[in-house]
């Protein structure tokens, strides 16, 4: 069956995933320069841990082999994981692992509220104190276009209202 994800008043049955820790809707974004989500990216966005990640180290392919996904039809959820991704500015073999869980709903049961989003951070140590624990990343949500009201910034480059929510062995749910 078709599953839907409800986000900022819209229903989506597809999404785009970036190596840089972004989930976007309608169009993809390969932007590695994280922002405070006011103007960029222009798409509806879930910034799981938006930063300049390199997926070619921990995986077996040339690129993107460290971004994994699985649909759990028994729980109606999609899990997207960035597994052992290194920071491009740090290099080496110390990779971060983090993932998002998106609640999916059957298309026959539309609603206007947002679907539940969980963000999980298994290991955010990349081997450099400047970049460890997501200190140079953005975590948050935004609606399409330039945003003020329809934007939730949890952390941005070590600041923001709740930067301590992201970190190794931490997680959060957003509804």
Based on helices, strands and strand pairing, what is the structural class?
mainly beta
Uncertain residue ranges: none
Helix content: under 10%
The helix/strand series, from N terminus to C terminus, equals EEEEEEEEEEEEEE
Commentary on this structure:
By secondary structure, the protein is mainly β. 0% of the residues lie in helices and 42% in strands. The protein is built from no helices and 14 strands. Strand 12 (138-142) and strand 13 (151-156) form a beta hairpin. It is globular. The mean pLDDT is 88.
Structure described in brief:
With 175 residues, the chain is mainly β. It contains no helices and 14 strands. Strands 6, 7, 8, 9, 11 and 14 form a six-stranded antiparallel β-sheet that branches. The chain has a five-stranded antiparallel β-sheet with strand order 3-4-5-12-13, with no helix packed on it. It has a three-stranded antiparallel β-sheet with strand order 2-1-10, with no helix packed on it.
Give the topology:
Blueprint: E1 3-7, E2 10-12, E3 16-17, E4 22-25, E5 44-50, E6 53-54, E7 67-72, E8 77-87, E9 96-103, E10 105-106, E11 117-123, E12 138-142, E13 151-156, E14 170-174
